[in-house]
Amino acid sequence: MGKRPEWWLSVLARIWPLTWISARATRWPVIGPVVAKMTLPLFSGDNLNITYVPIHRPLEPLQSTPLPIRVGEELIRRASHRVIIHRCTCRDARQCVNHPIDLGCMLLGPGAVEIDPRIARHVSEDEAVAHLHRAVAAGLVPMAGRVKIDNVIWGVRDLGKLLTICYCCHCCCTILTSGRYLPQGALDALVPLKGLRVQIDIDRCLKCGTCVEACHMNALELGDNGIHHSALRCKGCGRCLSVCPHGAIAIDVDDPEAAVEELVVRIGSRIEWA
Fold first, then answer.
1. Model confidence over 25-38: pLDDT tens digits?
2. Which segments within the chain are labelled E, that is strand?
3. What is the pLDDT of residues 175-191, one digit of tens each?
4. How far apart are the C-alpha atoms of 170 and 168, rounded to whole Å?
5. d(CA 238, CA 216)
6. Which end of the chain is more exposed for a tag (fewer CB within 10 A), N or C?
7. Do 31 and 25 contact (CB within 8 A), yes or no?
8. What stretch of H or E contains 73?
9. Is pLDDT of 61 > 70?
10. What integer pLDDT is reported at residue 27 of this predicted model?
């Protein structure tokens, strides 16, 4: 088992701002290309492959289980072991006042067995599902996938047996707040949910630009004819829908069942988590 004492969480919170700085540093003059070249292998390919599942009712058919719950429960059910970190490092670092800091990341799979119980709870399937429900009810966006750096952070041997489910807020999440600065190879590792579509009602849109300012990926632009959405830049986090004051934005998924299966298969191809 990896050794991570309780104070390790406080250390992480103090050094975590370096993650925001390093992401932005990839765009700095002169040293930016060097930083990007050094960090890209860690944040691309099989070392990083993640998907956000936005938590908005327009995603859900009537009388169905919300999509984030379906995705999360499927991953939890298939995993052989489940661990919940005591505190969210991103929110702890920023001392978030919008969302609970104790709603920490969930680690799944054989590798999670190695996580020190001083920094995390080793939980049952039912306890993991309850944590998922609490996080979604709090307005947090689940992010699931392979995050290689978590092996180092949580003291797990890198044997490709660790799956991460983070519960992200738009005010603190490192990737959501700094993702636009990442090099293209790393951006490609942020994979939108299959079949996810962002739709803009031009009759309701008043061109206020609120969604443009809020979009962390620069996927929205304000033009003479209203808001233009770039599917190539969008990572499907749902932030635009959350902030639109006029209800002009909707998010839909063509085939929710196919989206869930694609995510499970894609993650499974990169990691042994069951």
1. 888 898 988 988 88
2. 48-52, 82-85, 106-108, 120-122, 141-147, 163-168, 196-200, 220-223, 226-229, 249-253
3. 899 888 888 888 999 99
4. 7
5. 10
6. N
7. yes
8. helix 67-78
9. no
10. 84
Instruction: List the domain boundaries for the chain.
Output: 8-194+255-270, 196-253
In angstroms, the CA 113 to CA 79 distance is 11
How much helix, strand and coil, in percent to the nearest 5, is found in the chain?
40, 15, 40
Question: Is domain 196-253 given the CATH code 3.30.70.20 in the classification?
Answer: yes
- Distance from C-alpha of 132 to C-alpha of 257, rounded to nearest angstrom: 19
> Of 99, 107, 103, whose CA–CA distance to 86 is shortest?
103
pTM, two decimals, is 0.91
Q: Which two tokens stand for residue 51?
A: 């998907």
**Beta carbons within 8 Å of 19's beta carbon, 6+ residues apart:** 174, 178
Place of tokens 């947090």: 140
Q: Is 198 exposed, middle or buried (0-12, 13-18, 19+ CB in 10 A)?
A: buried
pLDDT digits (tens, 9 = 90+) for 133-159: 999 999 999 999 999 999 999 999 999
